[in-house]
Amino acid sequence: MVIKVVEKARGSKEAQTIMSLQRLPSTSRSPVIPAELVECEKSTLILMPYLPSVSRYFWAASEAHSFFLYAFTQMIAAVEALHNNNIAHLDIAITNFTFVQSDIKFGSVELKKDDIYLIDFDTTKHFESGPGSNITVTDFHGGHYAPPEGPELVDPYAYDVFSLGMTLRSLTKFSQYCEPEFEPFIETLSAKDPKQRPSIHQVQRKWRSLLYLLRPRILLQDCVPI
User: Fold this and answer.
1) Could you tell me which residue ranges the Protein kinase domain spans (predicted)?
2) pLDDT tens figures, 82-105
3) Fewest C-beta in 10 Å: which of 75, 88, 149, 219?
4) How far apart are the two ends of the chain, measured CA to CA in Å?
């Protein structure tokens, strides 16, 4: 069990973000760890199960090629869920994705082995519109990766895509599986010019097309010799 204290005076959107994403339709798995929120006078307590960082355990779980790609798929879906709800994380990084080692139950919710969740919503921002609406933030305080366009006028959604590309690049170092097709895909996400980066919806479509292309190779590489 983890208890995180969010001081109300700081104006953090973390508790609000977790609440809104936990209320997503049942047809969509929430990208946030199931949590209980306890309101106190000066703070909000966030109670959640402890999950280790992907950066710590990814290498051990990525022996199967299919899991490596499954992890990528979940990370993209997590960012897409935020952007669909006009939320920018602004600190997407390998250390902010957690990994379920074995099935666990938290309250009435079951967390399944191999599922990946996004954490640390302290820098999160909520907007009235989503990607492609030319939103910029002038009070960018920095995530794990410095925006190549500079911190003065950052498109929050494009920055999330950039950070996702950098995160995927980091993960390729943890696995023996690194398809040559990954490199141009990652390069597109991490383009220096934010206008050249695809939206998260375009990222999702590109990724699905790439998975379809790689499917025969995935099936072959996941086969176990008799």
Assistant:
1) 1-226
2) 999 999 999 999 899 998 988 998
3) 219
4) 42
Read off the pLDDT of residues 16-63 as tens digits, 9 standing for 90 and up. Answer: 888 888 887 655 678 889 888 999 988 989 999 999 888 776 555 445
Q: Where are the domains of the chain?
A: 51-221
Quick check: 80 and 205 in contact, CB under 8 A? no
* Topology (CATH) of 51-221: Transferase(Phosphotransferase); domain 1 (1.10.510)
Which among 186, 213, 33, 37 is positioned nearest to 119, based on CA atoms? 33
Locus of tokens 């995935």:
218
Question: For the stretch 122-143, what's the b/e string if a residue is b when 16 or more beta carbons lie within 10 angstroms of its beta carbon?
Answer: bbbbebeebbeeebebeebeeb
**Is residue 190 classed as helix, strand or coil in its secondary structure?**
coil
Q: How many residues does the chain have?
A: 226
